[in-house]
Amino acid sequence: MSFHYLARGIIRSEGHILLVRAIGDTMTFLPGGHIEFAEPAASALARELWEEASIEATVGRFVGAAENEWFDHGVTQSEINLIFEVNTSLTHSQPITSNESHLEFFWVRCEDIEQWNLYPEALRALVKQERLPQQAFWGSGVSGENTVSC
């Protein structure tokens, strides 16, 4: 079993959201990445955005968390994603160049999120909301459960 502790950001521009995927994969995710031991989650998110795509960002309010599990070569993988609002100067008309050859960044319309295979799956309902909830979000895709609460 492998556990992943991640910080992810919601970066929006005029009804669009920034997504990431491994090149050749069908699954997408919000920008961000692994939190290092004893690293504050917001700092990890700012660091990951800079490392992966030279995105200068101000990490804002904590939005909530989403857990997920999957199997990779027969090994159970489990993750908890801490989700934050992120402010940048980016617009959806700007292409984002990845600093990592295995990743690609792209903008999609929030209303079309179901077509982009976003994981954890519980984040799809959150992304479609015009305004993010003030109360902390919790979504789960563990053991077949797909629950969302705000």
Short structural description:
The protein has helices spanning 41-53, 123-128; strands at residues 2-10, 12-13, 16-22, 32-34, 58-72, 75-87, 103-109, 137-141, 147-149.
Uncertain runs are none
Helix content: 10-25%
CATH architecture: Alpha-Beta Complex
For the terminal residues, how far apart are their CA atoms? 29 Å
Give the CATH level 1 class: Alpha Beta
Number of helices: 2
CATH level 4 superfamily: Nucleoside Triphosphate Pyrophosphohydrolase
- The total of beta strands comes to 9
Content-based structural category: mainly beta
Sketch the major β-sheet.
6 strands, mixed
Order of helices and strands: EEEEHEEEHEE
Q: What's the overall average pLDDT, rounded? A: 91
Order the strands across the largest sheet as they lie in space: 4-1-6-5-8-9
Gyration radius (Cα, Å) is: 14 Å
Q: What is the molecular shape?
A: globular
* Tally of distinct domains: 1
Hey, roughly how much beta strand do the residues contain?
35-45%
Return the CATH topology: Nucleoside Triphosphate Pyrophosphohydrolase
